[in-house]
Structure formats: structure tokens, C-alpha cells
């Protein structure tokens, strides 16, 4: 079984474009969002589960992504104790071959990911003009076994670097074949959604 956790707060426009690719890979998908966020309807339209988190600004954080993911991870470990877990951002279109690669993976103690390219805006995406992203195994797509019970830190000021702290809990990193497409410019939304909405 593959269980997906997709973080989406004020990302409903992007989630409409990306969630189908995640649903094609995962058996169960939890959209991790805020109460009343428009992402909830997108999740329901795609038949996924919704997990609301209310501590995004906890302890003066601008975007406590780490606390949200840690909460979601504990829930997933309890309800899916022997599964592959895939954490993905709502602005990621994942390669369709990824499902079989995950199911075929042999090392249950490793952290897995895929390569990534960035499309800076809708025009670049339409024209297929992407730039290579040089930091694999970070939060855009992290795949591992629930038995490891590895979790994100309980709090982060924003979305920057908490994924690196989680990544470094694994001694082995393995890259699956395929390339994921990131919609937007890196770093812009680490403190919550700042970028313009997407329309294709």
C-alpha cells in the first residue's frame, strides 16, 4: 500500500492540476490543509481524504509546515502501520511510473525521491520550458516506510529546511527513475502562499 500526504494551504489552484497524478500513485491520499481552505473541495472532488490542521501559525510561526506534517505522520503510522508513505507538495506533478517503482523498492530503511524540474510560470509549463532543481530528497517528494516511524520536527517557523532535518534521519537515500514537475518558483512560498494563482 502507498499512502500519500499532500500539504495544501491556499494552493487549491495548483492542487487541481497536481492531485490527479498523486492519486494515480497512491492507494490512499490525505490532503493536509487548514480549516475552511478551498483545498478541501478539491480533495473531495478527487475522492481523497482531508486532514485539517489548526497550528499553522503556532508559536508565532509564519507557516508551521513541520508541525502539520508531524501530526499527519503520527496519524498515518497508527492507521497504516505497514505502508509506503509519500509526502508531496501540492505544486508537484509526479511521474506515472513512480507507483511501480515504489512497490518494487527493496530497502525498507531508506528514503526515496525522484528528480525534479521547475516550471516558473504557466507559460513555461505550457511550453515545456523547465529548469533543473539541484536538491533531491527534500520536501517536494519524500518516500519511505511507515515502520521507520520517522517524523518531522514538532515545529518550524516556516516551510524552509524542516524537510532537510527529516531527510537527515535516513542513512540511505535512493532516487527512483522519473522526473517530477514543480509548478512555480522555488522558495517564494516558504512563509505561506505569496505567488500568483495559476491558470492554464
What can you see in these coordinates?
- With 200 residues, the protein is of the alpha/beta class.
- The chain has one domain (2-113, 137-178): Alpha-Beta Complex (Spore Coat Polysaccharide Biosynthesis Protein SpsA, Chain A).
- It is 28% helix and 26% strand.
- It is built from 6 helices and 9 strands, in the order E-H-E-H-E-H-E-E-H-E-H-E-E-H-E.
- A 5-stranded mixed sheet has the order 3-2-1-4-8, sandwiched between helices.
- Helix 1 (12-25) runs parallel beside helix 2 (39-45).
- The longest helix has 15 residues, at 65-79.
Give the strand content: 25-35%
The helix/strand order is: EHEHEHEEHEHEEHE
DSSP summary: helix tally: 6
Radius of gyration, in Å, reads 15 Å
Total domain units: 1
Global shape: globular
- What would you call the quaternary organization? single chain
Runs with pLDDT <50, length 5+?
none
Distance between the termini: 32 Å
Main sheet record: 5 strands, mixed
Indicate the structural class. Answer: alpha/beta
What's the quick description here?
With 200 residues, the protein is an alpha/beta fold. It contains six helices and nine strands; from the N terminus they run E-H-E-H-E-H-E-E-H-E-H-E-E-H-E.
Amino acid at each position: 500500500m502507498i499512502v500519500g500526504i499532500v500539504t495544501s494551504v491556499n494552493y487549491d489552484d495548483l492542487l487541481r492540476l497536481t492531485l490527479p497524478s498523486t492519486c494515480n500513485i497512491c492507494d490512499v491520499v490525505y490532503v493536509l490543509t487548514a480549516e475552511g481552505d478551498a483545498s478541501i473541495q478539491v480533495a473531495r472532488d478527487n475522492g481523497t481524504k482531508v486532514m485539517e490542521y489548526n497550528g499553522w501559525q503556532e508559536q508565532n510561526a509564519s507557516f508551521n509546515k513541520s508541525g502539520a506534517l508531524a501530526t499527519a505522520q503520527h496519524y498515518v503510522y497508527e492507521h497504516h502501520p505497514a505502508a509506503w508513505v509519500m509526502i508531496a507538495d501540492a505544486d508537484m506533478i509526479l511521474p506515472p511510473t513512480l507507483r511501480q517503482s515504489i512497490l518494487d523498492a527493496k530497502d525498507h530503511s531508506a528514503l526515496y525521491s525522484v528528480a525534479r524540474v521547475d516550471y516558473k510560470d504557466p507559460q513555461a509549463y505550457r511550453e515545456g520550458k523547465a529548469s533543473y532543481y539541484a536538491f533531491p530528497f527534500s520536501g517536494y517528494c519524500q518516500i519511505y516506510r511507515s515502520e521507520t516511524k520517522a517524523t518531522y520536527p514538532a515545529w518550524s517557523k516556516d516551510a524552509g529546511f524542516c524537510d532537510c532535518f527529516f531527510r537527515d534521519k535516513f542513512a540511505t537515500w535512493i532516487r527512483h527513475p522519473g522526473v517530477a514537475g514543480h509548478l512555480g518558483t522555488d522558495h517564494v512560498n516558504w512563509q505561506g502562499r505569496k505567488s500568483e494563482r495559476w491558470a492554464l
